Amino acid sequence: MKILIVSTYFPPQNSIASLRPYSWAKWWSRMGHDVTVLTTEKQVSESDLSLETTSFKVIELPLKIPFASASKAVKTAAKEGVQKKSVKIRLLTFLKKRFIEFATKTGCFLTCRYPDWHDGWAKKAQKFLKSKSTTSWDLVISSGCPYSVHRVGYFLKKNNHTKRWVVDWRDLWTQNHLYPGLKLFHLYERSLEKRFHSKADQIITVSDGLAESLRKITKTAVSVIYNGFDPEDFSNLFKNSRKKSEVLNLAYLGSIYKGGRV
Questions:
Q1: How far apart are CA 118 and CA 62, in angstroms?
Q2: What pLDDT score was predicted for residue 92?
Q3: What is the pLDDT, as a whole number, of residue 255?
Q4: In terms of domains, do 58 and 72 share one?
Q5: Is 139 helix (H, G, I), strand (E, B) or coil?
Q6: CA 154/CA 129 separation, integer angstroms
Q7: Can you give the pTM of this predicted structure?
Q8: Which of 34, 35, 196, 219 is least crowded, fewest Cβ atoms below 10 Å from its Cβ?
Q9: 2 in helix, strand or coil?
Q10: Residue at 24 is within a domain
């Protein structure tokens, strides 16, 4: 099969969200499928993941974030300790702080709620794929958040460039319990979400709880594909011998949200 995975999160970006689409690309290509990944252009980081990507094709398109240069100037000034010497830097620092507070509170411009910077990337991705109009896919799977990746999947399905389109929600969008978004855009978000779901052939998510929430708002089939781990990712780790103990240790490795939700 010819498969396209659309995900803004992908190695070498060090994120849990990167590993889900990566595992699909890795193992599907090993099974003999022709796999292409469409993702955002990655910035070099000290924490980058070193994972094999030669068995499938990765296409990176740049993500334009307004005010990125201003943000970089603030970081540089902070390192050099010159904030107090420049009115401009002090103003930029203040605005950046207020913006981060707004994004964290609402989820807007934070991949979780509308609007988001990735909307512009999605338009760029559609334009890129449109230029490859002769290319068709047996399967397209878009993995969000950001919700913007589903704009790309919707575009391909609507224009008959794929036989099947799967919408993957790692987190809920309009029902997100952490990020309420802005009431001004709630109707638009729900309308867009409904459009995605009605066009998709299948919806998948990471847990039974999220699946139940999704089934309440769509008639499209919803299935669960849990997050897991790949034993090969741990093959080179130093193996420490554990001391024998009769005590049973349990570890919860997820997040504990406000109100005790996990």
A1: 10
A2: 81
A3: 74
A4: no
A5: strand
A6: 12
A7: 0.88
A8: 219
A9: strand
A10: yes
- For residue 245, CA distances in Å to 239, 241, 249 come to 18, 12, 10
Residues 170 and 213 grouped into a single domain: yes
Enumerate residue ranges in the chain where pLDDT < 50: 83
What pLDDT is recorded for position 68?
62
Residues 6+ apart with CB under 8 A from 207: 224, 226
Residue 10 lies in a domain: yes
Output the furthest CA–CA distance in the chain (Å, rounded).
63
| 127 & 196 share domain | yes
Based on the fold, state whether residues 82 and 151 are members of the same structural domain: no
Note down the domain range covering 102. 68-106
User: 236 is written with which tokens?
Assistant: 């080179």
Tell me which residue has tokens 């690309």.
25
Outline where the chain has alpha helix (H).
16-30, 68-80, 87-106, 118-130, 149-158, 186-199, 208-215
3-state class (DSSP) for residue 142: strand
Answer yes or no: do 44 and 121 share one domain.
yes
- Determine the pLDDT at residue 191: 98
- C-alpha span between 171 and 112 (Å, rounded): 9
Give 3-state DSSP helix, strand, coil % of the chain, rounded to 5: 40, 15, 45
| Residue range 168-203, pLDDT digits in tens | 999 999 999 999 999 999 999 999 999 999 999 999
Same domain, 13 and 138: yes
- Within a domain: 99: yes
- CA dist 200 and 213 (Å) reads 17
